[in-house]
Specification:
The strands form three sheets. This protein has an eight-stranded parallel beta sheet, covered by helices on one side. Strand 8, helix 8 and strand 9 form a beta-alpha-beta unit. By secondary structure, it is of the alpha/beta class. The chain is about 35% helix and about 15% strand. The chain contains nine helices and 14 strands. It has one domain: TIM Barrel (Alpha-Beta Barrel), CATH 3.20.20.70. Helix 8 crosses helix 9.
Length: about 400
Amino acid sequence: MKAQNLFCIALVMLSCFSCKKENSSLKISDGTVFQPKEYYPEFNWNTTPQYFMFGNSERLLTAEEVEFITKRTGFVCIEKSHGLEPLGAAELGAKHEAAEFKNIKSGIKVLYYFNSAWAWPYTSYNKNFTREKIDAHPELKNFLVINPETGELNHRRDIFSFDVLNPEFRKWWVETVVKGVNVTGCDGVFIDQLHGFFYLRDDRKEEVLKAQGEMLADLKDKMGPGKILLANNANDDIAKYVYPHIDATMFEHYNGQLSSKESLLKEWDDMLKNAKTGKMSVFRIGVEHDYRGTRDTSINVYNREMEILAKEKLKFYLSCFLIGAQPYSYFQYGWGWDLSDGSLIDYPELLKPLGAPKGAYNRIDPKGWVFTREFEHAKVWLNTETKEAKIIWE
C-alpha cells in the first residue's frame, strides 16, 4: 500500500512539474500567463513560431510542398484565389489543401480566407460580382458601395466594394463565410480589410465602423464554438468594434512606414495587449517594400532577386519580431501572397533552437531605439533607427 501511495504522489508531483513547465513557456513578458483557448493551434518556443499564408490560382500544392510547410508550422491560411483554375472555385482549393495538411498533421489549424470589403470573384459565392454579370443580379448589386463622386459602383481594377451599412449584405456575408468555413473543413477564417470604406462616407464613419464590428461579432457567433477568427490589422483604431470578437490579429506591414521605429514600438505594446487578452498575434513582414531595383519583366528573375533580398533582411525583421513576441505570436515572412513569393524558401535561422524568452525586452535608453532581449538559446540586439540587428545563437 505504501509503495502504491508513493507512486501516486510521484505521479502528482510529475504532473505539477509538467504544468509549471508548460506555464513557463506561456509566460507573458509582464509575468502573467497566456490563457489559450482549446481550439488554438500548437505553440512552442522550440524554434521561431511560424504562420504560413499563401495562394496560387493556377495550381495546388505538391506533396513535397505540403510536407515542407507542415514541418515548419501548425498554423496556415489558404489565400483568396488558391486552386481556382484546376478546381473552378477558391473554396475548393482551400478544401483540398486543408485535407492534405490534416492527412499529414492532424492537429494543424487551417484557415479559410474571405474579404469583408472587396468582392473578389474567386469563390462560387462571389463569382457574379463582375462587370459582365452584376447587372443580371440586382440583389447582389444592392450589396455594393456607390462612389459618391462618380455615382457608379466603387471599384479598384474592376473589383467591387461591399457595403457594410446594408443589413441584408451583412446577413448574406456572414452566412456565406460560415458556409465557406464548413464546406472547406477549415478551422476558422482570416478576414481581410476591416475599414468598410468609411473614407468614402466620412460623415458616417462611426456608423460604418460599428456595423463592421456587428458583422464580425455575428460571424464569430454563427461559426460556432471552436472556430478561429483572425482579422487583419485588428489592432488599428478603425477596428475598435471588431477587436473584442476576434481570436487573433495580423500586423500586416503592407508598406514600409509600418516598419518605422515608432510603429514597431507600438506594435510590441499591441502584441502584449493581445497576449493579456488571450489573443494570438501574426507578425507578417513583406520585404517587397525594401526592393529598390527596377522590376525585371521576368517574374522568375524578380523572385530570385527577392529571395536574395529576403535572406539579407531576415536577421533584422526576425529581430523585430523576437523583441516583441509573446506566447502565441507567429512570424510570417516573404514578399507577397502568392505561393512563389517566399512561402517555400528555406530560411535556416527560423529552424534554429530558440527557447522561451527569459523576460521582457530591454530598452537600453528610455528615449533611444536600441533594444535587447534574451531567449534560452538566443540573444537579440536591435536598433530600429539604423535598422541593424544581431542574433547570437547559443
